[in-house]
Design goal:
Length: 1103
Amino acid sequence: MRLSLPCGESPISIYSSWRILNLCSQETRDIFYHGFDNYMKHAFPEDELRPLSCAPLTRDRQNPAHIEVNDVLGNYSLTLIDSLSTLAILASSPPPVQGGRNKPLEDFQDGIKELVEHYGDGSEGPEGQGKRARGFDLDSKVQVFETVIRGVGGLLSAHQFAVGDLPIRGYEATTQSRKGQEGIFWRNGLVYDGQLLRLATDLANRLMPAFYTPTGLPYPRVNLRHGIPFYANSPYNTDAEHGQCLKDRNQKGAEITETCAAGAGSLMLEFSTLSRLTGDSQYETAAKNAFWAVWHRRSNIGLVGAGIDSETGEWVSPYTGIGAGIDSFFEYSLKTHILLSGLPYDRRHPDVDSPDAFLKAWQDAHDGIKRHVYRGATHQHPHYIQVDLYTGAMRAFWVDSLSAFYQGLLTLAGELNEAIETHLLYTALWTRYSAMPERWSTSSGNIESGLRWWGGRPEFIESTWYLYRATMDPWYLHVGEMALRDIKRRCFTKCGWAGLQDVRTGDKTDRMESFFLGETAKYLYLLFDPTHPLNTWDAPFVFTTEGHPLIIPKRVRQEKSGLPEAPLQHWPPEVGVCALPPEPVPFSISATAARPDIFHAASLARLHLMPTIETLDSPLVEFNADHPSISMSDVRSPSNYTYYPWTLPPELVPQNGMSSVMASRSTFDLSFPNLPNTVQMGALQRVHEGILVNSMSGLRLGMVREKDSYQGKPEIMLDEQFRIYAISNVALGRDEKVYMQRSTINDFNPLDPFFTRTRDPASLDLMVDAPPLPVTPPSSTSLEELLDEALGEKTNLSQLDISDTIEIDVNAEDLEEPGYFSSLLSSLQSLLSAPATSEASTSTSTPKPSKEPEIQRHALHATLPTGPGAAPLPDVSDPELQYSDTNPLIWHSMYVHLDTLCDGKLAPEIARSHQIIVIPRGGCSFSQKLHNIPAYPPKGDSLQLVIIVSFPEHEVPDWDWETLVEDLEDDYVAEEEDIKAKGGMGKKAKEQTSGKQTNPQGKNVEADDEPEPKKPHSKMTNRKPQSPPKNDPPPTAIPLVQPLLDESQYTPSGLPRPNPIPLIMVSGGEETIALFKRATAIGVRRRYYFLSQGVKIANLIVL
């Protein structure tokens, strides 16, 4: 057995980190080539390699339901396509070889030549026919998502490396013309002229039928040759005579239409790049429609689910998190913003077409995750769980291996601290299992539901690379070294690299997934090659979720117009700032190793309970002659689980390091006794935003004491409070509330120290009795008069050229639907030909006496004032919530002031004769408004209460988008005038000289008013999917504040007011003003909340 010095066994210091980089980068290159060479030898041109059998893995045609294989393997040499971008990356740092050959570059070019020989060059002529197929004309039913990210993405990335859009150090992609051929001439004889781009287009075209759905969500699967004949409700399969699908979806064998958020919404990077390179917008349009179809169906609390039906748009499962089925949707929202940044977009629809729209989607998604899915330090160590999609309530405790991608995404987004702290748990889990189990429970500390395999997934290594690039902390080099050592020790076979069927026992699976070479080896190599061009390149390129780098090259980028970009409404512009890495602890090398909470993650992973593992037997020993870099640490894990990763040298452990005290949550249960003669059925009722409690008998409230925050910009920390997180074993979401009627709690002691009822000093309910708004019945002759005016002398619609007479705004695409316009004309003709009602019958009809409108009682949230001028409310009893003649409101005379009462005094008789005065907010201080009310004798029919009405502009952040756009336009005009003053020609002048003119609104129009030519669309994008109602949140509203009366109350003459005027404030603006104008009576109803041990129970609402 020949052993060499491994990268982890040499003395490490701050001056010798290059050793681990150089040695481990070579070992990673060896890992890749051991898998790639064996695939090409034993499996090509099939899709994947069986490393234990030394044979190819192909589609399971005997069992079409075997989707774990059939969804991915399309019979088109998948592993080669997935490996091409890794070969291109290795080609930038080739090992020294005699003769100066660049073996990875040659293998990259040879791999492309092999693909062209087997699948053609993507053209229509004879060169388009390959040994296997013409393009991807294959009878394979594959998953749309997997085919896009592996097939289309792999081909596009390899094409961009081939033509020089992506960098390969030392490679010049020069187009030449020789002997009638034009392209990039390679040493293997292939003239590259875009074959991979044409093949990617061919593959994408075969996927496009899946996007023809009512929702815009693509069907999950498609046959590369036959399309989608197996979906019963597909518009392509409505031919009753020749249709090939089952007409009944419930019939046995009908194809399911369930896709997932990640599968439907993670197509933007590949399809946008394809559209920009080919000039055909159909791919990007389809991907955008799918992305927004997912996002607009998010829940009211901002969460995206996993499974979703592509035909109905309904969520299939109420569970959500950040892992399987959801993961790459978040990834593509941010990366699409990066990829498309600086590119022109449709300014008529900036909310769905601009790069900033995708950034906003990511930020909103992250806010929802941080609010509901993230568990903080009080749960041993920060991590993510599974929650209810609609309420945010906890549903499961497991984390999965796919969710390890999220720390890389957080790093890319600048959320560095959250990425570092949550990555520690995955590092501890890998240390424990020497791999990443598919699913692991934070509650039990064991593998969840028997999902104990690791198929070579890259997500944990990917995040490690991102974090190292952001922090340059050597900790992450040793994390990567640990993964490399464990892969070599546990996954090595004679013919490749096998996945682990059981991470505990080391049992292997006879499959090498294509992503092991396409992603896992790639990210390991980039981690250990800090000078690689992709580690230093300043360009808006991104890695897809399959690890393929893509970029929109400068040669296809259109020049942006000089007009300002259309901003997104209700979204404040933010300056992007890259987060700084953590400051290193003095006299230490690694800031991560010196974190005081590092052992909290180890404790959560139960590392301290694990025995030492001695693994002495390994097939590496038998084949070490071919791999001289193998060391003892490759066949034995030296970890004793006292520190992690086990490759960390002692030099990085801080001297006298001390773990911080683990935070804990203060929780307790509050139980109520079983009351006699009470019915338990229906005690809890699910209502909007929470639970309504109808009976306290036997109720148990689980409460946690914590600090909450106001989720705004900036975030505001609130006082410590109790939150009910469970009620009688029903888990509640973070923002869910518990509602109780006053009658439900009247029998309990209001002074109980654990359940103390307290009057709310900040808010109350303003009760308003008012009749409903009058409803004007539609005129029966209005339509007839309209048509008479349109028809004139004509008596029949057949005599009318309706396009010249009636202006109808109809979507041109809808007119293509059969019978649309003819149905409209038929309806109008039927209306005109109906017999008219005689005058006799009209005049003899006696109108029914109008019924008195019923009074309705409205409850408006109101805030009480604070400050030295605040006065207590009149001592009146609380009215009921429902209107009745037996429980009237006490104040009946109201006066609505038209202006803000800032200039001039109120007439004295108004305060003497009205109990309520309503004043609009704004213009001056609240104290000034009261100052302008004259003195009056305190009587029952004189002024009792002043109501301030707040308007929407007072309750949103104080940025003004219209002003922002106007300022940008002014800057643009000023720039044009400055150019002209200097003798140049601005953009406006150029447009005018080229036959364009500017209308008064500032829009450019052609001088002869010719319509702008439309871009060509495919058949599948001419018909836009039906967009669901957008679930976009309203503008970020500031909660209604308490009015500040900053001085004691004075009369207009300057004397202290002997009887201060009570004041409250409500919101609603003009709508509330209109309600007060028709009000018949007004009253107030106090609000109450409960304290437990002197601390407020924040989410318990007393109705």
